[in-house]
Amino acid sequence: MPDMLVLSRRLKEKITFPSIQTEVQVLGIKGGQVRLGIEGPPEVTVLREEIMGPQENWEAEQSDAARSSTRSESSREIQHRIRNRLNEVGLHLAILRQQLRRDQAAVADATISRIEEDLRHLRLELEEELAKVGAGRSEEAPSRSRS
Fold first, then answer.
1. How far apart are CA 5 and CA 20, in angstroms?
2. Would you say 39 and 21 are in contact if contact means Cβ atoms under 8 Å apart?
3. Is the pTM higher than 0.70?
4. What residues form DSSP beta bridges with 125?
5. How far apart are CA 18 and CA 5, in angstroms?
């Protein structure tokens, strides 16, 4: 599990994630609740923890059960999953930048290893999806015969 960066923010103050062009602003504080506003590009997915299913978890999706699933995914679902992977890599890069600024070489090395692993999994997933698309296209292509 990566290290957690703990920050304090006051009302109207922001936290920025420059690698994914996203900002989080404290909009209100009432009782035991903090109201946050999240602004970012549409490809940045934001989910509350309690609604995330096991499929949103990187390790769960990489399990053999998920790989052997025969459920066909729509193009939109595949794009969503890949965007999430890329967002995760972007977040790890932002964490790495902070670790390097703080001269935390040992921790930064572990983060680099995680980024490499994330990219390796993403590459494999993309290759699998591209192979499926290629196989689907060749199966769908009408056979042409010359007379």
1. 17
2. no
3. no
4. none
5. 15
**pLDDT at position 23, please?**
92
Cβ atoms of residues 125 and 85 within 8 Å: yes
Residues of the chain falling short of pLDDT 50: 54-56, 58-71, 139-141, 143-147
Round to whole Å and give the CA distance between 61 and 127: 15
* DSSP secondary structure letters along the chain: -PPPP-----TT-EEEEGGGTEEEEEEEEETTEEEEEEE--TTS----GGG--GGGSHHHHTSHHHHT--PPPPHHHHHHHHHHHHHHHHHHHHHHHHHHHTT-HHHHHHHHHHHHHHHHHHHHHHHHHHHHHHHHHHHHSPP----
Distance CA 107, CA 104 (A): 6
pLDDT of 82: 82
Tell me how far apart the alpha carbons of residues 144 and 21 are, in angstroms, rounded to a whole number: 48
